[in-house]
């Protein structure tokens, strides 16, 4: 199967054609590098100079696609040119092949060629001076360096600049990609945080509204309906106020842009009183020091709030116990409610509450458990969250 050679670059074609036409022009006017009586010229006919010229022009077609092969063949063509009257265009095209071999060749070739051409330049300088004992021998070394080492060094410098530019561009693209990933993660995290806050602040009030409105509609008792409507109004007003505060934070230039004070454990009493107003029999037990980290206090408050909301919707009749205790550098919250078979919840739920509680605990590197378990008073649904205080201080 025949091997298909790669197509030469259009710029290489231009260089090859231009060099070939320039060489033919010099040959046509009889302009050569050496005179017929030059001792180095072994072939006298002037047309022979065209053979290395054509070969060198063909090598220019491979300067990008096969730089190593082009340089090897070009070296042979240059050696043959030395045996003729010589063409300046052939020498110029050879310097371009040396430059291209360093610039487009393999990394190993790019490192070796400057060293090899530098060694050749040193030999071409020292040997004529030592052999002829004349300073004119330095001209041979200077010409050799101009033809070999100079284009090799130039190619090495250009290649280093090109590689540096590519590396900087890749680094900039990676930096931009990482910045975009960080921005996306930050947006996702902020959306999740806002979803948790919105759920925890509003779900409790809306659940109470749904439960008491159902009671008001199902019971034909003016006194009960009036009490239910009072609870509904209270929860509606509180929920609306919290929604306004949240919207004020989200929207620029609308109302109160300052965030409301974060709930603390001191507000658990009011939270429990509100749950009792909504119809829960709640017992609160606390044992903790003052001045706890704000992220831990907020997380515990929201977990207790969501647990009471779930108890209001799903718990069987009976006492709900809320316990908050500080032990061994951790703050533990436990909410247990009677667990039994119910035909349906008192208010619909989406299941996002447990997800939000678990996310809050995970952000503070704590542990979270929720599920049914046995107790001395019967089967209960227990929610337990243990939060290390050290993580809250660093949050």
TrEMBL record:
Residues 190-253 form the Signal transduction histidine kinase subgroup 3 dimerisation and phosphoacceptor domain. The chain crosses the membrane at residues 12-33, 45-62, 69-93, 113-131, 138-158. One of its GO terms (cellular component) is membrane. SUPFAM superfamilies: ATPase domain of HSP90 chaperone/DNA topoisomerase II/histidine kinase. Its EC number is 2.7.13.3. GO terms for molecular function: ATP binding; phosphorelay sensor kinase activity; protein dimerization activity. Gene3D superfamilies: 1.20.5.1930, Histidine kinase-like ATPase, C-terminal domain. It is an enzyme of class 2 (transferase). It catalyses: ATP + protein L-histidine = ADP + protein N-phospho-L-histidine. Keywords: ATP-binding, Kinase, Membrane, Nucleotide-binding, Phosphoprotein, Transferase, Transmembrane, Transmembrane helix, Two-component regulatory system. This is histidine kinase. It comes from Streptomyces sp. R41.
